[in-house]
Design brief:
The complex is a heterodimer. Chain A is an all-beta fold. Chain A contains no helices and eleven strands. In chain A, strands 2, 4, 5, 6, 9, 10 and 11 form a seven-stranded mixed sheet that branches. A four-stranded antiparallel sheet of chain A has the order 1-3-8-7, with no helix packed on it. In chain A, strand 9 and strand 10 form a beta hairpin. In chain B, strands 2, 4, 5, 9, 10 and 11 form a six-stranded mixed sheet that branches. Chain B has a five-stranded antiparallel sheet with strand order 1-3-8-7-6, with no helix packed on it. In chain B, about 0% of the residues lie in helices and about 55% in strands. Chain B is mainly beta. The chains are: A mainly beta, B mainly beta. At the A-B interface, strand 5, strand 9 and strand 10 of A face strand 4 and strand 5 of B.
Chain lengths: ~110, ~110
């Protein structure tokens, strides 16, 4: 079974620029999560989707971050404008629904803000 | 007080040693407990998954959950250099699909 795919793997931008990340979950996984992992910290949830609907975006900084999952499969996460504190690894995870299922993570996008 | 506390280490042990990694938590609503292993520049990989209190063993790995003490552990027997990674504990509350709350991770080095 193919894992969670993320691109790009690395991105370097200047502050105030915009950036977008892409995630393709494991086939059949209706639930998709975006996490932010700052160096030396555990991942922290940004947003959770089930199919194409948002389940939890309470920790998403909505003034600069946005995410969508239009057809219930792939998802994009965007930051505009970026701040220095957004330097982190952005991880996408997916899981099955209906019963408690573990989350499977992609390798993330490492974002550096100059 | 953070919901999940985990000593970030680093922890360095000789090859063959028994490793003990631990997390404490404050929210008694947590029901599901996981350990993830994260190699450098890779995503977290699920190692162990337990529900409520008790022990679970998988090869050289044993996970323990003590809900009365709000304390979980991961033991690695006969540690190998390939076990060198960051180990993240994670937990969540519900039986459905809910976001995980992670510890900071403990960085482990196993020296040959």
């Amino acid at each position: 079974e193919a894992g969670v795919a993320q691109s790009p793997r690395y991105k370097i931008i200047e502050k105030r620029q915009s950036v977008a990340f892409w995630c393709n979950p494991i086939s059949g996984h209706a639930t998709l999560y975006w996490y932010q992992q700052i160096l030396g910290q555990g991942p922290k949830l940004l947003i959770q989707f089930q199919n194409n609907g948002v389940v939890d975006d309470s920790q998403l900084p909505k003034d600069r971050f946005s995410a969508e999952r239009l057809k219930g499969v792939d998802s994009t996460l965007k930051i505009q404008p970026a701040k220095l504190e957004d330097s982190a690894v952005y991880l996408c995870a997916s899981s099955l629904v209906n019963t408690h299922q573990p989350q499977h993570f992609g390798d993330g996008t490492r974002l550096s803000i100059l | 007080q953070k919901e999940v506390e985990q000593d970030p280490g680093p922890l360095s042990v000789p090859e063959g040693a028994i490793v003990s990694l631990n997390c404490t938590y404050s929210n008694s609503a947590f029901q599901y407990f996981m350990w993830y292993r994260q190699y450098s520049r890779k995503g977290p990989e699920l190692l162990m998954y337990t529900y409520s209190s008790g022990n679970k063993e998988d090869g050289r790995f044993t996970a323990q959950v003590d809900k009365s003490s709000k304390y979980i552990s991961l033991f690695i027997r006969d540690s190998q250099p390939s076990d060198s990674a960051t180990y993240l504990c994670a937990m969540d509350k519900n039986s459905g699909n809910t976001p995980l709350v992670f510890g900071k991770g403990t960085r482990l080095s196993v020296i040959a």
